[in-house]
Amino acid sequence: MSAVFPFHFVFDQDGKVLQYGENLPRLCPQLTRGADVGDLFRIITPTGLAMTLDAISGQLFSVFFVECRQTGHVIKGQMIVIDQARPDSMMFLCSPLVRDVRGVKSLGLSFNDFALHDATVDLLFFLQTKVNTIDDVRTLAERLKQEVQVRRDAQQDLQAMNAALEQRVKERTIDLAIAKDKAEIANEAKSAFLSNMSHELRTPLNAILGYSQILQRDHNLDAQQIASLQTINDSGDHLLMLITDLLDLAKIESGKSDLHVSACNLRSFLHGVMALLHVRAEQKGLLLSADLAADLPSSVLMDERRVRQVLLNLLNNAVKFTDRGHVILRVTGRADQACLRFEIEDSGVGIAPDQLANIFEPFEQFGDQQIQVHGTGLGLPISQQLIGLMGSDIHVHSVVEKGSVFWFDLAIGAPGSDATAAHALQGGATTAADAGEIERSGAHAPGSGAATATPIPPREEIEKLYQIALAGNMRKMTQHAAQLLTMDCRYHLFVDQLTTLARAYQTKAILTLIEAHMNETHMNETREP
Question: In 3D, which of 284, 248, 489, 472 has the Cα closest to residue 378?
Answer without folding.
Answer: 248
